[in-house]
């Protein structure tokens, strides 16, 4: 495995400004990414108390379900130490773990935890937060595979009108088996195919929700790295969170006001509206009959179901939550706050979009008399096959440029350079001559009247259409002479910029596991560990296998 390290953040973007200590961007956060901020955040956490014993019990129970390795349980035990802190990041429970950025985020969490532990000389636990309470099934029920030549969408058909959390939505076993079979028939068979396929079928036989299957896969991929998994919808975690939900009910007005003020400031600073501004949004969901519904806070202080008829006074809501009659969950605004109340979060690992929406939350944290944790952008990772690396060298391509633009420009250049005849120029000249000929012809027949001119117009249209077909066929003929070159470049694009997207945002990790084995992720982690002194926050790593 060879690693090339670069920076792919576009100049002028929010993340670029943030990483380059732009004063306006940093003003939306409590801490920058300096070593001084690292120590300040740690000192702040040491003054706080957390339900550490209860957390250890909940996390131990949860990770046991997924056959975690001893190193994971050793990490969980370290949470009992008052001087320990965590590095955390989260993602939805995507099908077969979803896009590769889920894996990349976890790798970023693990590397940051190692670095921070060295820097602080204190225990730092890496935790991945699975957003099991999310209910938007259309975001998690599909993923994309590649066979190296094209991509294929892999999807489980689901009812999207149900607002059922993915931690409760059971995957249909027959659908899942068919999906895995279709997916692996699409992939080239390698020495790893049978083993991967067998394990996935065994998973399906056990029965899974989306969250459970995702957790099983992540536990395998990151075996023996010390990663701690956590599902926000886990009943034991929900029990620990109960007093914090009560506080969010009581302090809902300050939460809403703080978010609105900060979000408007961000918009005024030309950083956009990463989270929709809605004055009545209470930023909490309630759960009923295996579905969840958004709550609104009314001017009279009562709560109501958004676009629904149910209402509660604040006291009624508090009583329902306290007695367990009503279960709540967080939205994008209150989830980071809940994370901070629940865990001693030193650093949050964010994707580019998350970094921006966290910029709207500083005052929300302040409404609970606490500061935001450090927010560090994750690493970007792109896997390159030997074939792709060879293509890049053969045509002297810039990997970063391919990531952003694909290979179309190079393909057009190859087509143009390889032409014995400039067919575009030839047809442009022919069109001008034909137009002159048609004009003269029209002039000659005009004395015959409107009927003749109508026939002439029809002739002109047919000639134009036939010439267009002829031009297209000649173009295809020219391209066919360059087919080998074009095929190489298209295969490279399918791998690096599939369907116009970055690899990590579109493709699933399994096509790469199929090529390089289930140890690929752990090997990537070890490679990053070996080079971590060279890695900087938000770097883009290109890994040639």
UniProtKB/TrEMBL annotation:
Keyword Ligase included in the entry's annotation: yes
Sequence ranges assigned to domain Bacillithiol biosynthesis BshC C-terminal coiled-coil in this UniProt record: 381-530
Keywords of the record: Ligase
Annotated GO MF terms: ligase activity
InterPro entries per the UniProt record, alphabetical: Bacillithiol_biosynth_BshC, CC_BshC, Rossmann-like_BshC
Similarity section: Belongs to the BshC family.
Protein's name in the database: Putative cysteine ligase BshC
Organism: Salipaludibacillus neizhouensis
